[in-house]
Write a structure and sequence with these properties.
- This protein has nine helices and no strands.
- With 191 residues, it is mainly alpha-helical.
- The longest helix has 24 residues.
Length: 191
């Protein structure tokens, strides 16, 4: 409980400051506090608890550090207590895609960065596919659409067009399932 309160406190402070509006001092201070909490959890041997790993992932995600967020979600996935929810798995898939896109956004990405991005994209699609096998939803269709859209940013030629078409079709499926304006807007934008 104590660890959960620490993490809840810092996640709430990160949310109240807002990463986009925070200055470098605020961000560095919050990162320092989060790293101190991680050290405390490690010293107490509490990092085998999936929900604590998820809260750490959420905190790093709120700070915009997708790399650390993916690491903590991945650790939560393998935690002994099995406390990771399907929503957490959706977040992990989304963050893997977003991290892959950020690694390859720069056309001068190294071969190692491109290989890592390809691995992240593959892991993301595997997770999305498994989630859809459990149950289909508009959220999962939108997740798959986002995956294809980010995949298109690294593809060229016919592969890029195919990825954009797949994204549009997934957004349309999402709209038909949930009726959200977000899905419809993205479908129209891609068509």
């Amino acid at each position: 409980r104590e660890a959960r309160r620490w993490l809840d406190s810092i996640v709430n402070r990160i949310a109240s400051v807002g990463v986009e509006q925070s200055n470098e001092f605020d961000r560095s201070r919050l990162e320092g506090e989060l790293e101190a909490i991680q050290r405390g959890l490690t010293e107490r041997n509490w990092l085998g608890q999936g929900q604590l790993c998820v809260r750490l992932a959420q905190a790093w995600q709120a700070l915009g550090d997708f790399d650390k967020a993916v690491d903590w979600y991945s650790q939560a996935l393998t935690a002994d207590d099995g406390a990771m929810t399907l929503g957490d798995v959706e977040q992990l898939a989304n963050l893997r895609d977003r991290l892959a896109a950020s690694l390859t956004r720069n056309r001068k990405a190294t071969k190692a960065e491109r290989r890592r991005a390809d691995t992240l994209i593959e892991q993301s699609m595997e997770s999305i596919t498994l989630l859809e096998q459990l149950s289909r939803s508009g959220e999962r269709s939108a997740l798959r659409a986002g995956h294809h859209k980010r995949r298109a940013t690294t593809a060229v030629g016919a592969e890029r067009l195919a990825a954009l078409d797949a994204a549009a079709q997934c957004y349309l499926a999402s709209y038909r399932q949930d009726g959200t304006g977000y899905a419809l807007f993205n479908f129209i934008q891609l068509e």
